[in-house]
# Entry
Amino acid sequence: MKIKFNPRVVFSILASALTMTAHAQSQVEIYGLVGAYAGSMKRSGDTAAVPQLNGGGLTTSYLGFRGKEDLGGNVSAIFSLESFFRTDTGEQGRSATDPLFSRNAWVGMEGDFGRVTMGRQTNPAYSAMSQLSPFGTSVVFSPLVLQTFVATYGSNVLGDTVWNNVLQYSAPKLSGFSGTVQYGFGEVAGSNGVANLGLHGSYTDGKFFAAVSAQRLRVNVLTPLAAQQKAVLAGVSYDFGLLKLSGNLSHTDIDKGRSTRTVDAGISLPISAVGSILAETAQSHIATPGVADLSRTTSSFGYDHKFSKRTDVYIVYSLDKRSNAASAGSQAIGLRHAF
# Structure
């Protein structure tokens, strides 16, 4: 007899079980974010704008479960299960190809030695962009994220914002410094070297933030690459109080293939206790052997208004221009609520 997998049943069972556990030990949390936006979207090279109502926006909607158990000796067992979902249709995942727990799915241990985790885990280079872009980690509005990770904007860095089959070690924070090493097993028989490697470091003192990442990709999600890609990303931001400035540089290179250079700058300007003006521009130069060099410039301008610590509304206007296509504009208004 064939049994059909139903994500809704899994979520229902998981939520019920975790809620009961939470009452017992107060160590399991259910959390997430729901967001949606409506607007007209058009990339450079598109034939026409598309009117849309989509889930996500400034933050991709997700539902998460995390837990922690004290094992004694200042050592704890930890886990995280997080799933993206599409608010506009109610479907699980960012797309139909996403697994059930697409945002994170890992288990590990932490203590004075740091943290060791295993499973599907967010790329720290992507996580750092929450501090390095005025539009955060938005895969819709952040020029930095769009040109770095989104395929329809060039996807300068191959692979997803989340890596599969990862063994990760994060060192204890020391005077504002933190470091993480990721090793993503390729799981290819007879090919031990077909794996991804990421080295990530950051520093913060509250106002200043800096991050640098170096990674070698030999597996694109689940598919081994014909040639490895090396990528280096670095960024800084400083909160002056009256405004916050950020800047980023990145370089990628595929063996005997495409290389990219990206420069990004952004500003966040508070104009009241609850409202901020956001602006950011990213420009990439793409060189491919045997093909004319290309460039792409993407800019976003927006206003974010906070109703509370968990709820905000925003408007964004974006411009996109490829060197071999006409410029295009997008505009949207969105709402998000964290819980």
About this structure: DSSP finds four helices and 18 strands in the chain. The chain has one domain: 27-338.
